[in-house]
Design a protein that fits this description.
mainly alpha
Length: 433
Amino acid sequence: MGPELQIILVFVVFLGLLAAGMAVPFAIALPAVLYLYFQGGLVAFKALGLVSWGSMDSFTLTAVPLFILMAEILQASGLNQRVYQGLSRLVARIPGGLLQTNIAGCAVFAAISGSSVATAASIGSAALPQLIGRQYDRRLSAGSLAAGGTLGILIPPSLAMIIYGTFTETSVAKLFMAGVVPGLLLTAMFMAYIAVQAIYRPGVAPVEQGVRTAADALRALVEMAPFFLIIGATLGGLYLGFVTPTEAAAAGCLLAIVVSAVWGRMTPRIFFDALRRSVGVIGNILFITYSAFLFSYAISYAGVGEAVTAFVISLDLSRLEFFLALFILYTVLGCLVESLGMIVITVPLLYPILHSYGIDPIWFGVILVVFIELGQISPPIGINLFVIQSIWDGKLSDVVMGSIPFHLIMFVLLGLLFLWPELAMWLPMHMSG
């Protein structure tokens, strides 16, 4: 069997295992081991011990469990309800009412959680009962929550950016800062779309009162103060160069415990429940990361990266044509492959090509995360769709139809990032340290 047929077979096995319902880490690891055996027999397995150690012996990866624990603590203590209530009073007067709160709440919680699923589930559980009770349009409600949840992997901290930075040895702190402006811009675009819908289709959202006086606004800001404190301490320290991402995550965990004890309902039992859930999530993510390194090693051992680089260069594609090829690739993959899987199977192949096109790896990291965002709300496996559907009594088709306009808005953001890379690169270029 030739090398071309071998790599095709590996990808077919990978997609087949996913379609059969196998857990993502095993679906990645088994084809990787199979490909290694095709290439070098049992001799190729000799380096697996070193690869296994090297994949997990990473200071950068220690930020992952800390950010997950921070989000779990805040969610378990009920502070997600607090942030939603505070924001609902601040933005409810904007056309769209509580739908605007969905997007704003997801943006704020995204700046703490680093996880798309955690953001969608946390804000969704607080929002959906109120949205249904007040007769908001069901499709737009579900779509705004599913799409708003994707902000969890664009607005820092982002678990996807940590994994990407680990693979490419790119500064995670600069990747975080590169996601700030695009994340805020996407938030504004989502809110603008909802406002237009509310103005031209008044039936989608009732008119909310919101804050009426300066005192009401001040009380709403006080509700948000714990979150602003954590966001300022983590992202501010990163921007000023005072801390690494891991140190920022550790400080965020400590602040989350203090804030939850003072403003939330933190008890020893709730804290240990948060620890238990964190261990499950962390184990899954790190197992996927480990499997990803096995896949990367198999690709490297076979020389596939060099072959793909040479093939793409031989096509003599322009920068725009290369970007459009990526657009098609990730749009298709987003409908078939889980988010971390997209990083695993594409970054080892594409990263060497970036230099030949003069593409900055930090800018590409943001582009990749936006594509992953699209995958989070793309049927049939968009995980945010199922998260929202699982916490309300509606149909999955309503969630899918409600999220389609937000798909189109993400495509607009991709175009803006291509035309003006400075949207992503301005903050990293002005970082201290």
